[in-house]
Amino acid sequence: MFLLLIAAVGLNLYPVLSTEIVNVTAGVTLPNTGFVERLYRLDCGHSLANDESVWTPGENVGKNIEFSSTCYLLRHGSDVLMWDTGVPEETIDDPKGWSTLPSLIVYHLDRTISSQLAEIGLTPSDVTYLLISHSHGDHIGNVKLFPDATVVMQRAEYEWINGAPPADANLNILVTLARELLGHPKRLELVTGDVDLYHDGSVRLISTPGHTPGSQSLMVRLRNTGYVILSGDVVHLEDNFRRNIVPGLNVDKAQSLASMERIRALMAQYSAVLFINHDKQQTDRLKLVPQYYD
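^ thats the sequence. predicted structure below, dont judge the formating
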């Protein structure tokens, strides 16, 4: 059984996912009775960075590395959920690409979210909930494409991007961009810690701070596939995960290591597989919309 550690509703008090998020005392277990019917992977961009050592400190200095950017769509009953929104759609028309940190990394887009949703008979207006792993631009680039969706993110993340500017110049650039891309959603849910969204074990936000103060991962339960953990940026590469390597841009190394260990424990407890958002070698092996996991 999954242990719900902390759950707290944030602004506006909109009911999340047709149910209420409530405080639950540590030690209380919730039933594992629900399933996500379908999990789709969407291609939300790819990028080329000019110094891999930013993600592997002390190694691969000055070496180029290509990353994937991935979004996911979940079907749970009549609900449609998006996990992250990727690189801005406008990038598809820009041969120069788009960047969060121009001196380090450039993103390109081959397919828009809108066109991929259309492949499975959906439009952006059908998406009612956006679950945000964290606020970096390659993860929230299309939030404004879903103006009527409820945006669900960690309170710590929201307060970080709207608080005092970080002293680190690169982090300040990322935070400034995050405020612009997030904007002011009409429906915003700020949560704290772990949240079992349906109270049935099917969709679980897992607090994994370290990359940013309010980073989170997502664990979903599928009837045939079993448990899948969507990494957010708790880890960028399989090798980093195996060797406990923390990227230089992470805001807290100790929290990053603890969050990776937490994901390992969940993988062992639930025989879960980990889909690593930015590991292109792994991502290229996964099913892509209109194919899905069930």
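The helical segments are 113-119, 137-140, 155-161, 169-182, 238-243, 253-270, 280-283.
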